[in-house]
Amino acid sequence: METITLTGSTGYIGLRLIPRLLEKGYKLKCVARDPSYLLNREFTDKIEIVKADFKTEENLDLAFKGSNYAYYLIHSMSDSERFEDIEKTCANNFARFAKRNKIKKVVYLGGLF
After folding, report:
1. Which residue, 80, 81, 78, 70, is CA-closest to 21?
2. Rounded CA gap, 47 and 37, in Å?
3. How far is Cα 76 from Cα 24, in angstroms, rounded to an integer?
4. What is the 3-state secondary structure (H, E, C) of the chain?
5. What's the gap between Cα 113 and its chain centre?
6. Can you say how many angstroms the Cα of residue 25 is from the centroid of all Cα atoms in its chain?
């Protein structure tokens, strides 16, 4: 069974993608800053939840360990003056840890600038 790391799993697209990927037979590692958003859902017992924030490096190896593929759905929906810096940090951390963990393919959904 192929494993997918799904970042942004608590967002609008992530929450709708989880059931569809499970239906296709993928094993999911759902990464969230606040895992409570993934609890008490119809799919909770079918996913692995990893608490991590791509603004830091904590738990990022765990987020990718054992995965074959990864979805990048991380976007700071904010009007912060540091929006671009935060986006760049998250993207760089994702790329570095995905490469280190030998992720075969990344699916990227772009954000608005």
Report:
1. 70
2. 13
3. 29
4. CCEEEECCCCCHHHHHHHHHHHHCCCEEEEEECCHHHHCCCCCHHHEEEEECCCCCCCCHHHHHCCCCEEEECCCCCCCCCCHHHHHHHHHHHHHHHHHHCCCCEEEECCCCC
5. 20
6. 18
Q: Which residue has the tokens 């912060």?
A: 80
**Rounded to two decimals, what is the model's pTM?**
0.92
Looking at this protein, which amino acid is placed at residue 61?
D
pLDDT of residue 87: 87
83 burial type by CB count under 10 A (0-12 exposed, 13-18 middle, 19+ buried) = middle
The rounded radius of gyration (Å) of the Cα atoms in the chain is 13
10-64 per-position pLDDT tens digit: 999 999 999 999 999 999 999 999 999 999 999 999 999 999 999 999 999 999 9
pLDDT tens, 56-66?
999 999 999 99
